[in-house]
From TrEMBL:
Homotrimer. GO terms for molecular function: lyase activity. CDD domains: KDPG_aldolase. This is Bifunctional 4-hydroxy-2-oxoglutarate aldolase/2-dehydro-3-deoxy-phosphogluconate aldolase. The keyword Oxidoreductase does not apply.
């Protein structure tokens, strides 16, 4: 049965938001069975991907065991397109208060992008499910640890610069999840014929989360 709502249990089993940008429907259908088989549970299609709404709608129908959300949602127009397509969660690169208000009314999990302590605190105060610390690639693990020292009640989801070599360090620093794009979906493994290598790569990410994350 196709579940309507975001599954926090599934997310907590593998607290990685896989970010797919600029991918085709054919690529989605080739990769997602491998992604799911490896134990990963949450996928984001960015709204600046051509045909993003159609891809989200198709994925909700074909892959009911995955959390399927929309990313790069910067305005209400994109938000409503994502909601109409069946997105189960929303990710933004910015703090847009109109998006917070609407997601709250719809009971839709929201991971807004913020960077400075002030932005992070504001996003959390407005009702973020977790704050996407973005772009984390320029700041690294130490920044997450520093922010959480005074703001230890806030759930952080660093995005940008997270890869297999440092994912455990981000969780040990206190992150509740991570967002991963190119490091999770390396172009050289997305081509046909690399399915076994891709599955091994996905499984290595899943194992890395298991080493430091306890089930919720």
């Amino acid at each position: 049965m196709n579940k309507q709502f975001f599954s926090w249990d599934a997310f907590n089993e593998a607290p990685v938001v896989g970010i797919m940008r600029g991918v085709s429907m054919d690529t989605i259908h080739r990769i997602m069975p491998i992604y799911s088989k490896a134990g990963l549970t949450t996928i984001e299609i960015t709204m600046n991907t051509e045909g993003a709404a159609a891809i989200i709608k198709e994925m909700r129908h074909v892959y009911p065991n995955l959390n399927v959300g929309a990313g790069t949602v910067c305005n209400l127009d994109d938000l409503f397109k994502a909601v109409d397509a069946g997105a189960q969660f929303i990710v933004t690169p910015i703090v847009n208060e109109d998006i917070f208000t609407t997601c709250k009314k719809l009971n839709l999990p929201l991971f807004p992008g913020a960077l400075t302590p002030t932005e992070i605190y504001k996003a959390w105060s407005l009702g973020a499910s977790a704050v996407k610390v973005f772009p984390c690639s320029q700041f690294g693990v130490g920044y997450i640890k520093d922010v959480l020292a005074p703001l230890n009640k806030i759930k952080l989801l660093p995005t940008g610069g997270v890869d297999k070599s440092n994912i455990q360090a981000f969780f040990k620093a206190g992150a509740v999840g991570v967002g991963m794009g190119g490091s999770l979906f390396p172009k050289d493994l997305l081509v046909e014929g690399k399915e076994s290598e891709l599955e091994e790569h996905f499984r290595s990410i899943k194992v890395a989360t298991e080493a430091v994350c306890e089930p919720a």
